[in-house]
Design a protein that fits this description.
The structure holds two protein chains of two kinds. Chain A has one domain: Immunoglobulin-like. Chain A is 0% helix and 54% strand. Chain A is globular. Chain B has a single domain, classed as Immunoglobulin-like (Sandwich). Chain B contains no helices and eleven strands. Chain B is globular and about 40 Å long. Chains A and B meet through β5 and β9 of A and β5 and β10 of B.
């Protein structure tokens, strides 16, 4: 039973355009969501997070949107740069807990 | 400063062999986590330490898996009598104090069991 789903295994975007990565969750107890970025042969690196009391959090080129009623979140990258090519993981948790529940990841390819 | 390090980076074992995977967390980090990541999947939680105490081992898939952190810093994940289904990347993460702080990951150990 996958509690966090990333339905797009890969996404290709032109450099300079917007990249939108999507994530759905099923467990209504989740109240904290994170995006991690992973390069080959490296561990995941924390990118941005959002609490369920917010619907948007922005950090430079990265914005995460949360739609609680739809149990859906998305990561927007604007403008996309070649260095953004990586696998992006969505993760969710109950904030008072430590266990992260992860999606399967979306491979983002930025085309020059 | 130094991040989380793991060794070895790659390990090939014959089925039935025992393996030991090492994690050096960020200095001063209290919380330490082990995850297993199968090919094409996200990481799955294995176990959690707060200092030297193993507070949660609910994710360990069988009693062949054992983890320790005797002095509250370096941790070792041991897998006895390895099976092919144990082939995966094993990730270690640490966080500063509270278990709810941001987790910082090491590069992982890729285990291949033949």
């Amino acid at each position: 039973d996958q509690q966090v789903k990333q339905n797009s295994p890969s996404l290709s975007v032109q450099e300079g355009r917007i990249s939108i990565l999507n994530c759905d969750y099923t467990n209504s107890m989740f109240d904290y969501f994170l995006w991690y970025k992973k390069y080959p042969a490296e561990g995941p690196t924390f990118l941005i997070s959002i609490s369920s009391i917010k619907d948007k959090n922005e950090d430079g080129r990265f914005t995460v949107f949360l739609n609680k009623s739809a149990k859906h979140l998305s990561l927007h990258i604007v403008p996309s740069q070649p260095g953004d090519s990586a696998v992006y993981f969505c993760a969710a948790k109950v904030r008072s807990n430590y266990q992260l529940i992860w999606g399967a990841g979306t491979k983002l390819i930025i085309k020059p | 400063g130094a991040g989380v390090s793991q060794s070895p980076r790659y390990k090939v074992a014959k089925r039935g062999q025992d393996v030991a995977l090492r994690c050096d967390p960020i200095s001063g980090h209290v919380s330490l986590f082990w995850y297993q990541q199968a090919l094409g999947q996200g990481p799955e939680f294995l176990t959690y330490f707060q200092n030297e105490a193993q507070l949660d081992k609910s994710g360990l898939p069988s009693d062949r898996f054992f983890a320790e952190r005797p002095e509250g810093s370096v941790s070792t994940l041991k897998i006895q009598r390895t099976q092919q289904e144990d082939s995966a990347v094993y990730l270690c993460a640490s966080s500063y104090s509270s278990s709810t702080d941001t987790q910082y990951f090491g590069p992982g150990t890729r285990l291949t069991v033949l």
